[in-house]
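Fill in residues.
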């Protein structure tokens, strides 16, 4: 029973940060799911399943407030579909250690960029 409580809390925090900062929530959920005991590939996949719902709700709310630039969002979404397909194929063939390293390097690079440019997610 307790795993459902932890999963609920991870989903809530991931969605909150994802919707608030536009980071998708994976930055919070993937490490938390790994800490919960999921293998890296399962943590990534589970996080993405949750993010789909978060993105749909957030997009509807932001669109109703007139905050979505559809001229940018539509072509970016098409490119994202293609990239997600290839990214999934690449991930399936990577070892868990390689995925953890790539995830960590990505987080560090984003953090350095945000600090160096003074730009936050918002």
């Amino acid at each position: 029973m307790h795993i459902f409580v932890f999963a609920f809390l991870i989903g809530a925090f991931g969605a909150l940060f994802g919707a608030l900062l536009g980071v998708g929530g994976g930055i919070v959920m993937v490490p938390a799911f790994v800490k919960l005991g999921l293998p890296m590939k399962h943590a990534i996949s589970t996080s993405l399943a949750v993010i789909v719902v978060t993105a749909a709700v957030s997009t509807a709310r932001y669109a109703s407030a007139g905050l979505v630039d559809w001229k940018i969002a539509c072509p970016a979404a098409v490119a994202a579909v293609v990239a997600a397909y290839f990214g999934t194929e690449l991930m399936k063939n990577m070892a868990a250690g390689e995925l953890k390293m790539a995830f960590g390097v990505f987080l560090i690079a984003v953090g350095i960029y945000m600090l160096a440019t003074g730009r936050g997610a918002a």
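Residues 2-117 form one domain.
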